[in-house]
């Protein structure tokens, strides 16, 4: 058995098509001096992957055509020619959707401490990039204060569901926006939201009116992961000195042609409000601190964190599509081994 | 001679038409107990006036139809039935474009100290709302640091020209955007900008390319007073951790139908940048402090502040139009007496 890889063969226009990818098989790579080869067990399926498929300037270079699709993965060291890594160790790294990844370890390549939570996939979620995004975006940027009203978009998603719970732990009233009645039911039942709003089939003013009903005094902190009309509806309800933490714009990622234009920035002036873009890498020096707090909350049963595992590299495209069309209940993870 | 007033008779659709207003004449009002009547000498013509004409929620209620158009004015006390005001005193207040204004003094009604600069109209500009907006938006929100690059939109305008000069006083490199070659020449000659960009006839990508040429390392602080495509072009050049101080969106005020949609908010995420809305009233407790600094800079010849005076209430509509079409060289003031 060789190395099966999920290859990007074409830059998607709008929603990625199955023909934009193919699965190939090559020989299992051999590590050069200073390199390691990982047997990947899990790949994190994240919204950022859509941006990496485009040939546009961003915080990481585009995935080259013909290369396996970049992903955060967890694997065991298969072969090591690097003094800091031993065969059999669990390693978190940014590699790609492929069975075996050869890499020269960098600052993002991290040996997993299985004792933190006892569950290696927590490094793809609860105490990985997703969980730490929720933690730092909420606690350090949004800075929710007890009694405030917090609006979370993508509220049932991997990041959003944690943001809602963290805001709740800070004594806030939480309103979640999600797509469809089932997800909205989960918001209240599983993640403790005080109110749930279904965005489907609603334009900006209908959505703004529903938010207003749920938050008559305005929203102090918006965690924004969706963008498009949902952001405009949120801005129409921002409270004086409100903060929008802009973490993602997933509704706009599959744009072919012109992006959605946000029309309600005027509300920022009227309410002396702020939109702040969030990049997790700003907080790298504090990852251990954040992971410790998140793991403690989880141990105390205060943070529900569901995983949605898709099995097998053959289903990599399906896993990606579930990300964009909402067919997932929890953090999407592709199981490779 | 009675009280001539510039009346709003119809809510403008898009660009205000002359027929949206009329001038009438009523009796000079008599003050009730606790009220004063001012003989208005000067009215400040400001972008915010366009918003007050609309029947939309904002930080001040809409001007009622049939009422004189709201404006910040300077006048002398004509009659007083209020213990803190004496006839003949110069008073700054928010009244309206009318010869005589009757009002109950409020916290915005301020007896002018003629000794601060020796020029009463400075209270409509250098040390009034305009100058203090430039001061606090720059010094307290934008926080320019020596060596940074600052982009000012509406750079030849009343606020923008001061912002550019204040940023320069902080050791920044300044780039101004304005409309037409004459204004661009003034940016460099009169206000000390290091580079001037003419936005006319350019789309977002052409404008973004010109900004990139003037600021190859990106822009650390954008003072945004214009919005529309100019804001998008600025966002495409924001530096890591850049700050946009959103003070106005004058290009969008005369919208009939749908507002312009800002398409480049994605850049906020990629660069962990911030857009912060600015309202001057947040700084009311510090007005005296700001005025002192601005007056000192002006005395030392460090702040050029041109006034563009339009004579007579008959030209009130013309003064408003000059605001929107750019036919003014400095702060627009309507002289009423």
If you had to describe this structure to a student in words, what would you say it looks like?
The structure is a homodimer of 337-residue chains. By secondary structure, chain A is an alpha/beta fold. Helix content of chain A is 26%, strand content 26%. Chain A is built from nine helices and 15 strands. Chain A has helices spanning 48-52, 129-142, 158-169, 181-191, 204-214, 229-235, 266-270, 287-299, 316-325; strands at residues 3-8, 21-26, 36-44, 70-80, 90-96, 100-103, 110-111, 149-153, 173-178, 195-198, 219-224, 238-246, 274-277, 307-311, 331-335. In chain A, strands 3, 4, 5, 6, 7, 14 and 15 form a seven-stranded mixed beta sheet that branches. In chain A, strands 10-9-8-11-12-13 form a six-stranded parallel beta sheet, with helices on both faces. In chain A, strand 8, helix 3 (158-169) and strand 9 (173-178) form a beta-alpha-beta unit. The first copy, chain A, is globular and about 60 Å long. The model of chain A has no long low-confidence stretch (mean pLDDT 94). At the A-B interface, helix 7 and strand 13 of A face helix 7 and strand 13 of B.
């Amino acid at each position: 058995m060789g190395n099966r890889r999920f290859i990007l063969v074409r830059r998607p226009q709008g929603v990625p098509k199955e023909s934009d990818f193919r699965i190939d098989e090559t020989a299992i790579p051999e590590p050069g001096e200073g390199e390691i080869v990982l047997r990947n067990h899990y790949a994190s399926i994240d919204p950022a992957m859509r941006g990496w498929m485009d040939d546009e300037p961003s915080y990481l270079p585009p995935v080259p055509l013909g290369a396996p699709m970049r992903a955060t993965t967890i694997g065991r060291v298969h072969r090591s020619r690097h003094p800091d890594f031993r065969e059999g160790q669990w390693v978190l790294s940014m590699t790609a959707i492929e069975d075996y990844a050869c890499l020269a370890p960098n600052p993002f390549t991290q040996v997993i401490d299985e004792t933190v939570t006892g569950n290696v996939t927590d490094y793809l979620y609860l105490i990985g990039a997703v969980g730490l995004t929720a933690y730092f975006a909420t606690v350090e940027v949004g800075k929710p204060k007890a009694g405030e009203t917090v609006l979370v978009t993508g509220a049932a998603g991997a990041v959003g569901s944690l943001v809602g719970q963290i805001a709740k732990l800070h004594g806030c009233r939480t309103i979640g926006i999600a797509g469809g009645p089932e997800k909205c039911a989960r918001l209240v039942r599983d993640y403790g939201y005080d109110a749930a709003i279904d965005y489907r089939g609603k334009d900006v003013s209908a959505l703004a009116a529903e938010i207003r009903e749920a938050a008559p005094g305005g929203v102090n902190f918006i965690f924004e992961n969706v963008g498009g009309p949902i952001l405009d509806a949120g801005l129409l309800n921002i409270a004086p000195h409100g903060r929008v933490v802009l973490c993602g714009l997933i509704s706009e990622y599959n744009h072919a042609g012109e992006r959605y234009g946000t029309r309600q920035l005027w509300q920022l002036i009227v309410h002396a409000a702020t939109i702040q873009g969030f990049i997790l890498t700003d907080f790298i020096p504090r990852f251990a601190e954040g992971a410790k707090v998140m793991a403690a909350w989880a141990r105390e049963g205060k943070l529900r964190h569901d995983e949605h595992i898709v099995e097998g590299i053959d289903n990599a495209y399906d896993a990606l599509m579930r990300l964009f069309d909402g067919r997932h209940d929890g953090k999407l993870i592709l199981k490779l081994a």
